[in-house]
């Protein structure tokens, strides 16, 4: 029997219903959706007498059910997804990030007979988190979860978003919303990170070995109580063996002498004696933690005694949760009074991160940890707050917008990431298949990266170092190419492209780019601004930062410096920290995209017609954590 999509009358009928056939989808999906439509009482071969609105609604429901099956594994795939989460959680607990990344990186896009697909792992992670985050018996676990260190900031943001939705029991049901806010890769990694964070927190609270707890709670045949999971219970028909998946977090302190010297001496304060009971307990807790703010316990205790001194001067007590907010205010006042004294401002940052560790110590050890939750939440907001540079960025953007609009439009139109929009729309055509992580397939990386002047090729295994071309990126996924990943995400975020779970299409804004004339300047600046925001926050998977807030802050500061370069001060005068190489790596991506230029003294600068777009991009980056949190709360 020929496909009904080959019938011109059927196509016209579908178009009348607002459903446009995408070439290739019939062969791929028709056989799966037809039975689902039959359950709704519709036969794809006989729609002439059917009510068009009813058919359209049935198609929507059938498609939703089809997509749901992608994220609901059974049998060996269910067992395999849990097996992977067990091994991933153990790797995170042991700080073996190389193994953890290899585990997630080895998941195939499409399921194999005994190996789950990425979509299966996402579904299990989100369903499991919905159970755990709404379980009253695990309330303390939810309060003490810390998203583990990970090289992708976007994945960590997705983990926090997922955890917030799971606290309302909505993570799995919000899959489509999550795909609107995060890439598929970020969702898959973020879900696994959130699961690991939850289980590791439970092990600490219960004082049990992580190996024992992982076997108990990450089990596809579990009971659903705090000692086991019921996600998928009864649906597994496999053996339970599951497949075998094989193959130093940073801190804001950095490492080495330069980082550990920022003690109370920066403020003219002498550390208080460290022999009191609180310091001893805090030291003992730090010694058991796999990740702390300072390079070592001794350095952090020195910073903690400075905190005690400052609190004493302010008549505040670190033992009183109500005194934490005033203490944070006092520290911020010190930073403000320091002005251009970089050493003092850096010392305040170290003190704030030490205070964050102290509050986690309280959450872990206090008899009534709930009283510390509000103080901790407030401090987390401060640590994420880069609003101090917002007035400068707003002033830069306002001044830049005074430049003639046609001059700005011409400069923006000359950028490769803008010029290539029409080419990628032509390439996407009526629709292209994408991976379960929401990215390009390996075979397509070379062509699409080339559209924006990036030399990259998708490979299953990277060649030996001596066989590589220096300027070429050998990518196992699109997310290994930061500029390409940032452009792809910007195209989706601005409506040029639109993604479903399995395909990418032209977006609602595509027609504005297809005309013979150059698009309006506002449209061009919007795309470029989102691209800048993606790059300066390290959204591409090619970055390896674990410093998050500190790297972002330095990247933002150096970009603002480029926006205001006056020729009198060289970038060489800027202080160098352990975050500098990662910040410069991000700026290099902007330079390659034509958004930054190097002048004779080696400093970065931004040409005047591009300043509005770059400034607004940094503003978007500064605001993105708050926007993500607001979206998660809705």
Describe this structure as you would to a colleague:
The chain has 634 residues and is mainly α. It folds into 4 domains: 4-70, no CATH class; 75-217, no CATH class; 257-383, no CATH class; 390-633, no CATH class. The chain is built from 28 helices and 7 strands. It has helices at 8-16, 25-39, 52-70, 75-93, 97-105, 118-133, 139-144, 153-166, 175-181, 184-206, 210-217, 257-260, 277-288, 297-313, 324-338, 342-365, 373-383, 390-400, 405-413, 416-419, 421-428, 442-451, 482-493, 511-514, 521-536, 549-563, 580-592, 611-633; strands spanning 432-433, 456-458, 473-475, 497-499, 503-506, 597-598, 604-605. The strands form 3 sheets. A 3-stranded antiparallel beta sheet has the order 1-5-4. The protein has a two-stranded parallel sheet with strand order 2-3. α14 (297-313) crosses α16. The longest helix has 24 residues, at 342-365. The radius of gyration is 26 Å and the shape is globular. The protein starts with 7 loop residues before the first helix and ends with a helix. Residues 1-5, 13-29, 223-275, 540-547 and 630-634 have low confidence and may be disordered.
Measured as a percent range, the helix fraction is 55-70%
Q: What's the oligomerization state?
A: single chain
Mean pLDDT: 77
Kindly, what is the distance between the CA atoms of the first and last residues, rounded to a whole number of angstroms?
47 Å
Global outline: globular
Q: Could you say how many structural domains there are in total?
A: 4
The main sheet orders its strands as 1-5-4
Count of individual beta strands: 7
CA-based gyration radius: 26 Å
Strand content: under 5%
Would you tell me the structural class of the helices and strands?
mainly alpha
Compute the number of helices: 28
Q: Which stretches of 5+ consecutive residues score pLDDT under 50?
A: 1-5, 13-29, 223-275, 540-547, 630-634
Sketch the major β-sheet. Answer: 3 strands, antiparallel
């Amino acid at each position: 029997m020929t496909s009904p999509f080959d019938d011109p009358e059927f196509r016209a009928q579908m178009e009348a219903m607002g459903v446009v056939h995408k070439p290739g989808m019939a062969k791929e999906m028709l056989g799966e959706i037809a039975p689902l439509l039959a359950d709704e009482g519709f036969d794809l071969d006989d729609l002439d007498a059917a009510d068009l609105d009813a058919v359209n609604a049935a198609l929507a429901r059938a498609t939703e059910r089809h997509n749901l099956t992608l994220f609901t594994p059974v049998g060996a795939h269910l067992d395999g997804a849990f097996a992977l989460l067990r091994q991933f959680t153990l790797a995170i607990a042991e700080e073996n990030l190389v193994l953890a990344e290899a585990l997630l990186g080895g998941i195939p896009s499409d399921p194999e007979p005994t190996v789950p697909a990425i979509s299966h792992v996402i579904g299990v992670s989100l369903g499991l988190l919905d159970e755990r985050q709404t379980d009253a018996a695990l309330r303390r676990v939810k309060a003490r979860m810390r998203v583990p260190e990970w090289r992708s900031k976007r994945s960590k943001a997705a983990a926090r978003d997922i955890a917030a939705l799971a606290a309302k029991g909505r993570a799995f049901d919000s899959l489509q919303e999550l795909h609107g806010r995060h890439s598929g890769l970020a969702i898959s990694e973020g879900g696994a990170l959130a699961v690991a964070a939850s289980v590791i927190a439970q092990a600490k609270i219960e004082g049990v070995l992580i190996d024992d707890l992982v076997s108990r709670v990450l089990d596809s045949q579990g009971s659903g109580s705090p000692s086991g999971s019921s996600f998928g219970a009864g649906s597994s028909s496999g053996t339970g063996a599951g497949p075998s998946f094989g193959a130093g977090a940073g801190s804001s302190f950095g490492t080495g002498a330069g980082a550990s010297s920022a003690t109370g001496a920066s403020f003219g304060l002498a550390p208080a004696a460290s022999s009191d009971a609180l310091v001893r307990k805090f030291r003992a807790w730090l010694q058991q933690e796999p990740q702390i703010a300072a390079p070592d316990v001794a350095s952090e205790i020195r910073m903690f005694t400075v905190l005690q001194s400052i609190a004493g001067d302010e008549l505040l007590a670190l033992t009183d949760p109500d005194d934490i907010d005033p203490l944070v205010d006092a520290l911020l006042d010190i930073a403000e009074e320091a002005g251009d004294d970089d050493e003092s401002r850096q010392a305040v940052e170290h003190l704030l991160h030490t205070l964050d560790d102290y509050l986690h110590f309280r959450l872990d050890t206090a008899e009534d940890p709930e009283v510390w939750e509000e103080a901790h939440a407030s401090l987390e907001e401060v640590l994420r707050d880069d609003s101090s540079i917002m007035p400068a960025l707003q002033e830069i953007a306002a001044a830049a917008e005074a430049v003639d609009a046609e001059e700005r439009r011409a400069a923006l139109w000359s950028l490769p990431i803008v010029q290539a929009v029409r080419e990628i729309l032509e390439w996407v055509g009526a629709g292209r298949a994408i991976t379960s992580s929401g990215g390009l397939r390996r075979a397509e990386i070379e062509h699409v990266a080339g559209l924006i002047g990036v030399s990259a090729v998708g490979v299953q295994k990277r060649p030996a170092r001596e066989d590589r071309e220096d300027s070429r990126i050998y990518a196992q996924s699109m997310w290994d190419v930061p500029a390409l990943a940032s452009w792809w995400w910007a195209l989706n975020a601005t409506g040029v492209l639109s993604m479903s779970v399995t395909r990418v299409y032209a977006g609602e804004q595509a027609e504005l780019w297809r005309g013979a004339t150059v698009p309006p300047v506002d449209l061009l600046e919007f795309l470029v601004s989102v691209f800048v925001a993606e790059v300066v926050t390290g959204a591409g998977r090619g970055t390896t930062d674990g410093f998050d807030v500190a790297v972002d802050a330095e990247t933002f500061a150096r970009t603002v410096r480029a926006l205001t370069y006056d020729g009198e001060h060289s970038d060489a005068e800027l202080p160098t920290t352990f975050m500098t190489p990662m910040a410069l790596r991000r700026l290099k991506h902007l330079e390659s995209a034509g958004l930054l230029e190097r002048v004779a003294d080696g400093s970065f600068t931004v040409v005047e017609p591009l300043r509005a777009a770059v400034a607004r991009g940094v503003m978007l980056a500064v605001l993105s954590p708050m926007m993500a949190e607001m979206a998660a709360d809705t």
